[in-house]
Structure to design on (618 residues):
């Protein structure tokens, strides 16, 4: 049954892909991961797209899909909404997209909600992208609603990260303190037919120049009007050029290795925790914590008690 | 030697406190924690103070110290700067404070830098506050430079969290999306002799009313001018009232239990990771990751290899 499913995925059967993703999303324990026997002979280019709500990330993604297809390539989309408890294509915009590409084997779209567990979401979205990679997609796009830690986690899942802003995002410069400058490889000023677009673009370039470090290429800024398909070809070319550069100087490989390493560490940590915290140990902890009524609790002593259980 | 140190801490000897904190900060492994035999018969009130740079957190903290002393109580200050790699009283403002209270047994001040490890900082600052608790301090104040995730971690270390804003912080309302509303038990509008203070206070009250949940008291907003000692007595009273309320309805105990639980889980997780990742396993992982040159790497397969080592 699983064997057939994996075969289906490798043959880019979208029904099988969808089923395996659901299995992966609900996989309880690492040892039983259905992905263990899933191997891929190619590496997808993983692109993260993030930015504040209203920046037009979905429209930009749609334009990128079309450009990718026009270049004879295939693409998987993982739309991540950390604020939504829903999953499986529940976003309205996604429904429209999904209908458009329903019979198109070159495009696979999946929405993921957080179930209230941000960290878990970042892990699972990586597993899902492994499935899409095994199906042979050339590109995988992570599209995420930008809200703090979640977007940074998601960015760590991508080869390159595009941060989308709009001319009105002047205030969003504030947000950059929160780490957007660190994660962005490319900036897109979307809706660039509005006033203030050039101002924002040059402000961004100044900031980027100021913050640029020696060990990293300064992110490029692209002016785009997604709704009119303006600037998309230039952006696509920019992505290709950046990827080529990163391949040549080794940063692409470096990022992939460090990403894999992080994933292994995170998964092992999750696994160790699950094995360690037997219901016995959980009960014991619960009891000890309740004893702490008047006296201060010595955490390190508590841990000794539980380790020696 | 450690026995004597612990005795000194329990006798509120500030030199011993300082030494034990350094030991704790550098403690490599959980099992050897010097805190294991440190017990405290009282519980300090732990107050977190956070807010954007320039809001006057240090001046407010200084005023609180004076009010606490005037009420015959003692206090420990843990100044946390996640952006600073330095530790041990390196901040200029702290040096001034430290000099002021150098010979005062009622006030102990410690600065902590991040060493580039935010999560670790949150853990360590809790260990440090255990030392201060054992020395008998009535209050422990965590003062933190507000920058995203760090401040939320630090807030989780406190019984109550005070968020400090200034009239100019109108834009900082933006920041509230990032979780300040969730962590604040009390809001202080500092520098309230400036124009816009009342506007900000009522805006805040509206927002808080809108976001308030049934299971929690709506945070109070206090107008304060720290540099002129205006509003400090009211704030101190507000803190006392809130603590009494939280004691009565059980939320104080609830928070302390859930905080202890989180600490145990985090420390155990750290411990399990350290035990698991022998240099053999690390080497193996490094080798496997380097093999991933052209083929995609199956993370779940890698983990199986390492688990079966």
């Amino acid at each position: 049954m699983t064997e057939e499913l994996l075969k289906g995925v490798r043959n880019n059967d979208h029904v099988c892909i969808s089923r395996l993703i659901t299995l992966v999303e609900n996989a309880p324990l690492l040892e039983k991961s259905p992905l263990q026997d899933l191997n891929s002979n190619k590496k997808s280019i993983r692109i993260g797209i993030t930015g504040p709500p209203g920046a037009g990330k979905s429209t930009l993604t749609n334009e990128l899909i079309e450009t990718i297809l026009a270049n004879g390539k295939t693409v998987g989309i993982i739309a991540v909404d950390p604020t939504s408890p829903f999953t499986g294509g529940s976003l309205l915009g996604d429904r429209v997209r999904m209908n458009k590409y329903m019979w198109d084997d070159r495009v696979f779209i999946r929405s993921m909600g957080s179930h209230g567990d941000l960290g878990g979401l970042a892990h699972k979205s990586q597993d899902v992208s492994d499935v899409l990679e095994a199906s042979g997609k050339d590109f995988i796009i992570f599209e995420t609603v930008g809200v703090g830690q979640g977007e940074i986690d998601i960015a760590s899942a991508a080869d390159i990260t595009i941060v989308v802003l709009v001319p009105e995002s002047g205030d969003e410069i504030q947000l950059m303190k929160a780490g957007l400058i660190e994660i962005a490889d490319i900036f897109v000023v979307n809706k660039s037919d509005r006033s203030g677009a050039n101002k924002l673009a040059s402000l961004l370039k100044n900031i980027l120049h100021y913050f640029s470090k020696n060990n990293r290429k300064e992110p490029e800024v692209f002016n785009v009007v997604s709704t009119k398909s303006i600037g998309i070809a230039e952006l696509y070319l920019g992505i290709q050029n950046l990827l080529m550069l990163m391949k040549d100087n080794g940063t692409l490989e470096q990022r992939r290795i460090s990403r894999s390493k992080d994933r292994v560490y995170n998964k092992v940590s999750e696994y160790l925790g699950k094995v360690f915290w037997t219901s016995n140990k959980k009960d014991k902890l619960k009891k000890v914590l309740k004893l702490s009524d008047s006296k201060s609790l010595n955490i390190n002593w508590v841990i000794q008690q539980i380790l020696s259980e």
